[in-house]
Design goal:
By secondary structure, this protein is of the alpha+beta class. It has two domains: 220 residues, Cytochrome Bc1 Complex, Chain D, domain 2 (Orthogonal Bundle); 163 residues, Cytochrome Bc1 Complex, Chain D, domain 2 (Orthogonal Bundle). It contains 19 helices and four strands. Strands 1, 2, 3 and 4 form a four-stranded antiparallel β-sheet that branches. A hairpin with a 4-residue loop joins strand 1 and strand 2.
Length: 410
């Protein structure tokens, strides 16, 4: 077919059931009439001829041992490649050749293939009908994951009597829990568990809490609107402000910590603050840095510091509410297409992919074993449960094949 001087990439979406539709790819850009022929041009597989596809089939005979005779894998951990996007396949084959993909078996398989052969292999696999969910290794919906904030709130039912609703104390001597970084909160709970912090009632109350419970409770309190403890704070705030200059390096200006390892002190109950400092001073709380600093403080200085910090406005820690699986899917679909059916030849389709391969891939981006700045940024905040849920979701989606053709551009 003779090409005009300029063309646009047109996408014809073909449902596995046979229905067809046509539309422009969101990522489509103007392409030159004749694709580049230089090595490394990732769109050459998009322009492959029927002869190229046939030659690609011959080259892939040795690939069928792992990827299946039709590009649909029956081997755990080995991806389906049938119907995968051509430019993506070609780019990743080159990455395996270069040794940047972290898979020695694949490196050996493609090591001696020419660049032209890689183009044809990518074109062949892209031309095949993709796998459907029944061929994904039996992926099932991940168990419904409870909202961690709601779970945390439910778990704090026994805490409110002492620490106040939302973690804002109304009882002198009881600390406010709002405004604490979750990492510090969890560390404090573990200190009560281990006996590093001496408090028999706290130790007995937290004995039944799992690590997941502690994380959920910490998240719940971190996301509540901060407010000062509603308790008295006798002492000289001005004198306390002067004394607090030595504390700002660890606990932040005005008691708002920027380090998850150190607690924010702003708005804390004054009586609790004073008793904690005395505990560091006499050694009943173990922390050599705090012991050294508290040793120089007399009772009056401790009361003044407590009054100063109690009067400061607490601020929320830098914590975001975890996304639900549906919210993560919305983010992933922006690049990978609706339900994982990419319309961009450079972006992989995820629909009906083997679930364990999707899990492996996401974790490789998290650890840096696979190098991709966008995927690393997207996956870094995924919890293990998020990874499992996303993989199960996309493995269950119906896959669509896409044919990329050039049309005249006017």
């Amino acid at each position: 077919m003779k090409r005009n001087t300029r063309t646009l990439l047109l996408v014809a979406g073909i449902l596995a059931g046979g229905a067809t539709g046509t539309g422009y790819s969101p990522g489509a850009t103007a392409q030159s009439a004749k694709p580049k022929s230089g090595e490394g041009d990732d769109l050459r597989a998009v322009y492959a001829t029927a002869a190229d596809v046939a030659e690609g089939r011959r080259v892939t005979e040795s690939c069928s041992r792992c990827h299946g005779p039709n590009g649909i894998s029956t081997t755990k951990g080995v991806p389906n490649v049938a119907g995968q996007r051509p430019a993506y396949l070609y780019a990743k084959l080159r990455a395996y050749q270069a040794g940047t993909r972290g898979d020695h078996a694949m490196e050996g398989a493609v090591k001696f293939l020419s660049d032209e052969a890689l183009v044809k292999v990518a074109a062949y696999y892209a031309s095949l009908e993709p796998a459907q969910p029944l061929a994904t290794g039996g992926a099932k919906a991940a168990p419904a994951r409870p909202d961690p904030v709601a779970a945390g709130k439910a778990a704090t039912a026994g805490c409110a009597g002492c620490h106040g609703e939302g973690g804002i104390s109304k009882t002198p001597g009881m600390p406010s829990l709002v405004g604490l970084d979750p990492k510090y909160f969890a560390a404090a709970i573990n200190a009560y568990r281990s006996g590093q912090r001496k408090h028999d009632i706290m130790k007995s109350l937290i004995a039944a809490l799992s690590d997941a419970d502690v994380k959920n409770i910490a998240l719940y309190y971190a996301l509540q609107k901060p407010a000062r403890a509603q308790t008295p704070a006798p002492g000289d705030q001005a004198a306390g402000k002067t004394a607090a200059a030595a504390c700002a390096g660890c606990h932040g200006d005005q008691g708002v910590s920027g380090n998850p390892a150190n607690p924010s002190l702003a708005g804390q109950d004054a009586q609790y603050f004073a008793s904690a400092l005395r505990a560091y001073k006499d050694g009943s709380r173990k922390d050599e840095t705090m012991k050294g600093l508290a040793a120089a403080l007399n009772d009056r200085a401790i009361r003044d510091l407590a009054a100063y910090y109690a009067a400061q406005q607490p601020q929320p820690p830098k914590v975001e509410k975890p996304l639900t699986t549906a919210e993560w899917v919305q983010r992933c679909d922006r690049c990978h297409g609706v339900n994982g059916n990419s319309t961009d030849p450079r972006t992989p389709a995820l629909a009906a992919q083997r679930v364990e391969y999707l899990v492996k891939g996401l974790r490789a981006y998290q650890t840096g074993a696979r190098k991709d700045s966008v995927m690393a940024a997207m996956s870094t905040s995924l919890a293990d449960a998020d990874v499992e849920a996303l993989a199960a979701y996309y493995a269950r989606q119906r896959a669509r094949a896409f044919v990329y053709v050039t049309v005249p551009y006017k």
